[in-house]
Amino acid sequence: MTADAIVFRDVVKRFGDVTALNRTDFAVAKGEVLAMLGPNGAGKSTAVDLLLGLRKPDEGTISVLGTDPAKAVSQGRVSAMLQRGSLPAGARVAEIVDLSRRLYGSVRSLDEVLGLAGLDGIAKRRADALSGGQAQRVRFGMALAGKPELLFLDEPTVALDVEARQHFWRSVQKVAAEGTTVVFATHYLDEADENADRIVVLNSGVVVADGPPSTIKAVATVRVVRCVLDEPDLNDLQGLPGVVSVEVHGQEVALRCDDADSTVAEMYARYGKLRDIQVSGAGLEDALLALTSSGDAR
Ligand SMILES: Nc1ncnc2c1ncn2[C@@H]1O[C@H](COP(=O)(O)OP(=O)(O)OP(=O)(O)O)[C@@H](O)[C@H]1O
């Protein structure tokens, strides 16, 4: 028996000439919220397909909830909200969610699922009359209905507006607090930063970083220097030592630097007065670019 919800060991998956996963290795502890990040073609969806038992690895071993992925799914312990998947056109939202509940043995009440998925106001609406974001919320409700031990979310917030996104992540945190392990893939890095306990970064099918968001962000050596200048000169700023890129909005200047100390020293020497100067660490986006710039499997 293992305390890990997922063990993905030395996994290789090929599609003809393309090696989508190349000795991919990671584990996810029970109750953890894990974000899988990486550029297009990095292998995230392939990993999720293997974890759901939809495909078999060519090499390596995969264990889900202590057993084979397909078995864990057939036992009703795993559910997924995938990018694809249509809804039954003539059925109403509450009927669709209720069917999922009953398939999984009605562990949560219908009201609870509708509330978690943000569907209370549209429970009677027909599936063919839903907007993209509403249909996405129905898929989330279906995935939550059985109170799964393990929940996969593939690009879950793509069609959601700001309010629906906030509601979505509150519900994810709620089910995670109840003990559900959550694995999600996204290109919205701020959502991974705010909601994941841990991030696994894939690039060309290889895990290139694995740790809490703060550890992943520390990889980026880039710093951002912001200040206010009376008459900022774009060319002059671009020529400062250590500057990677420059943004100027009126008198406000933002410089991305790979050697912020040298940049700031030269700015004081050249301009004398620097107002409202701030030096901050770069975000997850810079870290991800630093980690994955060497290859995109597209
Ligand atoms: N059924 C398939 N047949 C052939 N190649 C495939 C198939 N599925 C995936 N691939 C290839 O495997 C690689 C990994 O694809 P995958 O969809 O897992 O990436 P991803 O990280 O999910 O990308 P995205 O962020 O674009 O969704 C890509 O090069 C892709 O073209």
TrEMBL record:
One of its GO terms (molecular function) is ATP binding. It is found in: Cell membrane. SMART domains: AAA. It is a peripheral membrane protein. Residues 6-229 form the ABC transporter domain. One of its GO terms (cellular component) is plasma membrane. One of its GO terms (biological process) is response to antibiotic. This is ABC-2 type transport system ATP-binding protein. PROSITE patterns: ABC_TRANSPORTER_1, ABC_TRANSPORTER_2. Keywords: Antibiotic resistance, ATP-binding, Nucleotide-binding, Transport. Its main location: membrane. It comes from the Bacteria. It comes from Kutzneria buriramensis. InterPro entries: AAA+_ATPase (IPR003593), ABC_transporter-like_ATP-bd (IPR003439), ABC_transporter-like_CS (IPR017871), ABC_transporter_ATP-binding (IPR050763), P-loop_NTPase (IPR027417).
